[in-house]
Design a protein that fits this description.
The protein is mainly alpha-helical. Helix content is 72%, strand content 0%. The protein contains nine helices and no strands. The longest helix is centred in the first third of the chain and has 28 residues. It is globular.
Length: 238
Amino acid sequence: MVNPKAWIAEAIATFGLVFFGPLSVILGVVVFGDGTLSIEAIIMISLGHGGAIALMVYAFGHVSGAHINPAVTIPMMITKKIGVKDGIGYILFQIMGAVVATASLAVLFPELGKQVLWGAHGGPSELLNNSLMSGLAVEIILTFFLVTVIFMTAVHKKAPKSVYGAAIGGMVFLLHLVGVPLTGASMNPARSFSPALVSGDAGLWEVQWLYWVGPIVGGIIAGLIMNYIYVNKAEKEA
C-alpha cells in the first residue's frame, strides 16, 4: 500500500532544504559577502543546510521518515525499509519539492540569486584540481557518512530517537563545512538537479552526473553495510 501523505511530506521537507539551504548561499556569498566563498559564508551555508535538515527531520520524520534525498530513499528501498512504489513516489516528490523551491528563489531573488545560480553545484573546485574523479570520490565519502548516521540513528531500533534529528542535522553541518569548498557538498541529487534545471546553465549539466552517481553510490554502500551488520541484528533482538 502506498502512502501519498508521506510523498507530500517529502516534497515539503525537500522544499525546506532547497529553499533555506541555497538561500544561505545567496546571503552568505552575495549579500553579506564579497562574492567569494569566505569562511563566514561557508559557516552560514553549513548552518543553513544543517539547520533545515534537522528541523525537517523532526517535523516529518514520524510521517515519512524525512528522507529528503533520493540518495537516502534508494538505500532504504534496497534494504526493504520502504516499498518500491513508495520509494519511487518519494523520489519524484523530492525532486518536485526541490524544483519548486529553486523556482521560488528565482522569482524572489532574480538578480542576487543568479550570481550564484541559486545555490548550484558546479563541480570539483581547484582544491581538487577540478578533477571529476576526485569530486566523485568526495561525494561518495560524504554521502556514505550521511547515510551511515541516518541508518544508525533514525533506523536502528536501539538508537535514542530524541536526538536523531540533531545528529543528522549536525552531520550535514559538518559535511558542508568541509565539503562546500571541494564539491559544494551536494550528497543529494534533488538538491543539485533543481538549480541546474531552473538556471539552464550548460556547465551545470556537464557535471550533473557527478551529483547523482556519487551520492547514490555512497548512500547504497552505507545503507548495505549499516543494515546488514548493525540494523538487522538489532531488529532480530527486539
